[in-house]
Amino acid sequence: MKTQTDPRHKKREERVSAMFAHSFSSPSDNKIVQTLLSHLDAVDAAIHAAAPEWPLANINRIDLAILRVATDELLYSDIPPKVAIDEAVEIAKKYGAENSSSFINGVLGTILKSKQTI
User: What is the CA radius of gyration of the chain?
Assistant: First the structure.
């Protein structure tokens, strides 16, 4: 069972924090997000395809950071999709706005469905 002190959960929170900071200033030499930044165009394209009514510039910056980290995990890691989505939702509940968790859950679910049909 995961807890707030789980090292994997803490690492995800660090990645979200680093991506959030990156949204205010780039380029980033932060090693935590270097891999994600190398995939950023594809990650952003997947998010845009899953939520076309929400341009990336209009998504709350913390929500976008959470979506980017989780989408990177869905597309480029061997982390089980359910874990990546659950962790993103939990982080959104902690740091996002009132509706962030359901928005993030919906976008990531759509990304997962599109990934499975490829």
Answer: 13
Q: Which two tokens stand for residue 106?
A: 């919906």
Q: If you count them, how many residues does the chain have?
A: 118
Structure pTM? 0.90
Query: Which pLDDT belongs to residue 103?
Result: 97
- Tens of pLDDT, residues 63-100: 999 999 999 999 999 999 999 999 999 999 999 999 99
Burial (CB count within 10 angstroms: exposed 0-12, middle 13-18, buried 19+), residue 28: middle
How far is the C-alpha of 3 from the C-alpha of 75, rounded, in Å? 24
Q: How far is CA 79 from CA 8, 10, 16, 31, 75, in A?
A: 11, 15, 16, 20, 9
